[in-house]
Known about the structure:
It is a single chain. The two termini are 22 Å apart. The chain has an eight-stranded parallel sheet. It is built from ten helices and eight strands. Helix 2 (41-53) links the parallel strand 2 (30-37) and strand 3. It has helices at 18-27, 41-53, 73-82, 105-122, 134-143, 160-168, 185-193, 223-234, 238-253, 255-260; strands spanning 2-7, 30-37, 57-61, 88-97, 126-131, 151-153, 171-175, 199-201. The chain is of the alpha/beta class. Helix 2 (41-53) packs parallel to helix 3, helix 4 packs parallel to helix 5 (134-143) and helix 8 (223-234) packs across helix 9. It binds nickel (II) ion (NI). Nickel (II) ion is lined by residues 6, 8, 36, 93, 204.
Amino acid sequence: MLIDTHCHLDAHYFAEGPDAVIERARAAGVGGFVCIGVGGAAAAEHAVGVAQRRADVVATVGIHPHEAGSSSAELFATLTALSGQPKVVAIGEIGLDYHYDHSPRDVQRDVFAKMIGFARERRLPIVVHTREAAADTLEILGREGAGDVGGVIHCFSEDRAFAARALDLGFDLSFSGVVTFKNAQSVHDVAAWAPADRILVETDAPYLAPHPLRGKRCEPAYVAHTARAVAMLRGVQPDEIAQLTSENACRRFGPALAAAVGMVQNPS
Ligand code: NI
């Protein structure tokens, strides 16, 4: 069984609705889903709603760097209320995106720092988005004490030096379809090298469909391609990666995810 630790199931991505998408994934051997609630209050409520309705889904809520510039006190109040729901397992995705720069960088940094503080108050791990902002991301994670809650570097696309620092700070590395791309040499290197108990897999649906589906709309069923690529890079069987990454995901996101996939958690 696989867990897709990062998918966006909003209606504007999947007009057929989340249940149809999830059933296709279940048929492909994916048994658990971390649904990311970003893009405003309605999107966060949607993600949490899917998690409350379905046994196999948990949710996160957060403020994506793209929307940092338009975040408001009302949004923050909604996220505060939602973050108390038992099926909300993390705050995210939050972070920095200097590739698109949809929000001013100083605002992105402020909102990222504020959301780390929020996660620490709520004692929830964080899901980190970082693009072309490696140094600032690591600096803010360190400065804001993000290691107290830890979390995940989502859609890992950096190099081994970044990975080593992130692991030291208490962050697991989540591999997306990027690890299946032939030109992603540094990501291949990290996927082969990273400690076995610190790796996860995800789709980031509807983005970044893995090879050989690259360019299509991505959906959680495709996480098997990503797991297979990670297995190949590590020289192990895909089943082993499925087992390992599912255990790691349950350890990271806690009892709500373990219950969602029917896994008994060892106390640690
Ligand atoms: Ni995402």
